[in-house]
Amino acid sequence: MGATADHGFKIVVVGGFGVGKTTLVRSVSEIRPLNTEETMTQAGATVDDIRQVRGKSGTTVAFDFGRISLDARNVLYLFGAPGQERFWFLWDRLFSGTLGAVVLVDTRRIDDSWYAIDRLEQHGTPFIVACNDFGGPVRAGADVREALDLDPQVPLVDCDARSRESGKQVLITLVQHVKNRYADPSARTVLPRREFV
């Protein structure tokens, strides 16, 4: 695909610390993703709760960026948001001009997802929820939906952020959800402006 496109659509991947946002962007991007991942240090251990993400050695400190060409004229730009609370101030800027968002969830730490969902609802940004597979017991979708108090219209899917095919299915679900939402006359009828970080 060429380096330019007529239409760019921005998608943000959000969620708690260590849920696989960077991994998802890496797995689906057609270009080598831009990562702002830094090595975690002992100093950060007093700030970030790493008990549930043992073995994690790096963390996103600004955002991840990837790209997927849909065709010669249309491109998805993917932005992975940092998950730690100390970087949440960046989220409002990342949400600006966003077509939609993926809330990536680790069902072992479901409470870490609340903030992302609340912020997206406040912004009026269409989103889906994707439960990342960490190899543990699978929680039933109905239990996850109830725990997150999700609107029945919000799609809930399972995924493996390491798998390109699984990541693509997540993005397809999001794009279909956005399309359905804007086709509904009671929803917003104006697409977000093309504005990037």
From TrEMBL:
Keyword ATP-binding: yes
InterPro entries to which the protein is assigned, alphabetical: Gliding_Motility_GTPase, Gpn, P-loop_NTPase
Keyword Nucleotide-binding among record annotations: yes
Coiled-coil region(s): none
Pfam families: ATP_bind_1
SUPFAM superfamilies: P-loop containing nucleoside triphosphate hydrolases
GO MF term list: ATP binding; GTP binding; hydrolase activity
Keywords linked to the UniProt accession: ATP-binding, GTP-binding, Hydrolase, Nucleotide-binding
Family: Belongs to the GPN-loop GTPase family.
Record-given protein name: ATP-binding protein
Organism whose genome encodes this protein: Streptomyces corchorusii
